[in-house]
Amino acid sequence: xxxxxxxxxxxxxxxxxxxxxxxxxxxxxxxxxxxxxxxxxxxxxxxxxxxxxxxxxxxxxxxxxxxxxxxxxxxxxxxxxxxxxxxxxxxxxxxxxxxxxxxxxxxxxxxxxxxxxxxxxxxxxxxxxxxxxxxxxxxxxxxxxxxxxxxxxxxxxxxxxxxxxxxxxxxxxxxxxxxxxxxxxxxxxxxxxxxxxxxxxxxxxxxxxxxxxxxxxxxxxxxxxxxxxxxxxxxxxxxxxxxxxxxxxxxxxxxxxxxxxxxxxxxxxxxxxxxxxxxxxxxxxxxxxxxxxxxxxxxxxxxxxxxxxxxxxxxxxxxxxxxxxxxxxxxxxxxx
Length: 336
Prior knowledge:
Blueprint: H1 11-18, H2 22-36, E1 41-51, H3 80-92, E2 97-102, H4 112-124, E3 128-132, H5 138-147, E4 151-153, H6 160-163, H7 172-184, E5 188-190, E6 193-195, H8 201-212, E7 220-225, H9 233-238, H10 248-261, E8 266-269, H11 278-286, E9 291-294, E10 297-298, E11 301-302, H12 306-316, E12 319-320, H13 326-335
Parallel strand pairs: 1-2, 1-9, 1-12, 2-3, 3-4, 4-5, 6-7, 7-8, 8-9
Antiparallel strand pairs: 10-11
């Protein structure tokens, strides 16, 4: 029996989940997870930067911002065929979903024909497609939907209260507005955030609360651990401090609470996983994480790598996900 889906979570209820004894929280999260997901299967995704650097936003965590002194050089949008070649390689390595990111505040209309061609090309390979291009207008969202885009990623990053301490060039409400445009166009939503930016647990409660009370839960919820890159505001601010790495137990708690409050969503371990121990990742899978990025790079940040992941999966008895995620499967059933 699938877990009940609620959009009326209160902050007090979510805070109470965070405060549970760790073993009780993991048991509850694992139980919810098993009601809707195969517990031994984890979705493999690949993320490619199709346009790197030069972003005018001032996100304090991002090495691709023009405000960062991180050494990342700006590039032009990749050639369509080069992107499709990377997608084919990802499919050969077992990836189910191919995610593509461009360091833009928002795509220009002149960029859309190439973006549309990329989406159609990757879908023709039989892979799920996901893009993150910044803010979208309703027309751009409709164009992506017409091209067949499966998912659009637009993270809320943190709680509404902490957000303004990390980013000043874009309002929190503008993030929600883009999610609305994506949802209205009929594209699945991928939205999560970053923990370990110096925020409090109360902010992590607010982060989960925002996603869990959307009119419809995101189909995918990436949970990132901050990678403190030298030359970024947060990387320099947190360097050599106890806050430079979020406590593993607190990270697992965040994953578990996301799973309980959004039972049908895919919860993805994203950036920062390369610095986690195998034991910490195993706890995340137990807590309901069931999606990861494979490969040795996430946009500009390092990642664990295919061989490392394969070895970990073998040790844990995990296998790549096959078939549709629960929310996609339910949509197919409803339309049948």
